[in-house]
C-alpha cells in the first residue's frame, strides 16, 4: 500500500511540474527532446508530447515497481529495503524530469 502511495504522490509531482512548464513554454509549438554532446538539439517533439513523456514513463516505472513489490516477496534480509528503493526510484524520476525541463528552458533562453 505504501508503494502505491509513493507512486501516486510522485506522479502528482510530475504532472504539476509539467503543468507549470506548459504555462511557461506556452508560446512554443515544439520543445527539445534530445541534445548532442555539443549542446545542439537533435530532435524536438510537440509541446504536450515533450511535457508528458517523463510523467508517462515515470508512471509506468513506478506502478511496475509497486506491482512487483506487492505481488512478490523480497529476498531474505532485504525486506526493509523495498520502501527506500521505491523512494529512490521516485526521486530519480523527479530529478530526471526536472533536469529535462531545465535543459529545455536553457535551450529556449539561449535561442532568443
**Largest beta sheet: strand ordering:** 1-2
Mean pLDDT score = 91
The major sheet is characterized as:
2 strands, antiparallel
Helix content: 55-70%
Strand percentage, roughly?
Answer: 5-15%
N- to C-terminal separation?
Answer: 47 Å
CA-based gyration radius: 17 Å
Shape: elongated
Low-confidence stretches: none
Total beta-strand segments: 2
Total helical elements: 3
Q: What structural class do helix, strand and pairing data support?
A: mainly alpha
H-E order: HEEHH
Helix and strand topology:
Blueprint (H helix, E strand, L loop, with lengths): L1 H23 L5 E6 L5 E6 H25 L10 H30 L1
Antiparallel strand pairs: 1-2
Report on this model:
With 112 residues, this protein is mainly alpha-helical. It has helices at residues 2-24, 47-71, 82-111, and strands spanning 30-35, 41-46. The chain has a two-stranded antiparallel sheet. A hairpin with a 5-residue loop joins strand 1 and strand 2 (41-46). Helix 1 (2-24) runs antiparallel to helix 2 (47-71), helix 1 packs parallel to helix 3 and helix 2 runs antiparallel to helix 3.
Keywords:
112 residues; mainly alpha; 3 helices
Short characterization:
This protein is mainly α. 70% of the residues lie in helices and 11% in strands. A two-stranded antiparallel ribbon has the order 1-2.
Amino acid at each position: 500500500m505504501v508503494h502505491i502511495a509513493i507512486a501516486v504522490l510522485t506522479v502528482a509531482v510530475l504532472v504539476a511540474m509539467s503543468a507549470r512548464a506548459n504555462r511557461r513554454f506556452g508560446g512554443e509549438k515544439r520543445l527539445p527532446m534530445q541534445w548532442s554532446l555539443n549542446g545542439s538539439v537533435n530532435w524536438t517533439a510537440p509541446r504536450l508530447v515533450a511535457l508528458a513523456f517523463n510523467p508517462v514513463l515515470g508512471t509506468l516505472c513506478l506502478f511496475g515497481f509497486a506491482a512487483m513489490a506487492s505481488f512478490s516477496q523480497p529476498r531474505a534480509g532485504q525486506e526493509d529495503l523495498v520502501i527506500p528503493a521505491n523512494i529512490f526510484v521516485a526521486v530519480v524520476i523527479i530529478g530526471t524530469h526536472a533536469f529535462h525541463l531545465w535543459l529545455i528552458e536553457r535551450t529556449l533562453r539561449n535561442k532568443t
